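In the design runs reported in the main text, the only information available to the sequence generator was the tokenized backbone. The following block is the verbatim input for one such run; it is reproduced so that readers can re-run the procedure and compare outputs position by position.
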């Protein structure tokens, strides 16, 4: 799963099946590219969504370190719902 060498070849569905298991909890994972567009998301097959203005994307643009960031609650553009209800 060494996608760092070729991020364009990263297969989210394969990674979830093989490496990411959460004890029967609902999980939603998406990948945002360097252009700010989310092109891959579990359970979503619509058009890419521009998230470049979102805090959880902006914080990583000029980041000097790789660390976890948890944003304030938001309304998801893909579903119009809160991610945690």
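Verbatim output:
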């Amino acid at each position: 799963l060494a996608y760092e060498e070729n991020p364009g070849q990263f297969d989210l569905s394969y990674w979830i099946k093989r490496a990411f298991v959460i004890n029967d909890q609902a999980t939603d994972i998406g990948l945002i590219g360097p252009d700010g567009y989310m092109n891959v998301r579990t359970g979503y097959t619509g058009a890419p969504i521009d998230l470049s203005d979102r805090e959880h994307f902006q914080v990583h643009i000029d980041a000097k370190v790789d660390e976890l960031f948890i944003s304030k609650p938001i309304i998801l553009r893909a579903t119009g719902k809160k991610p945690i209800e």
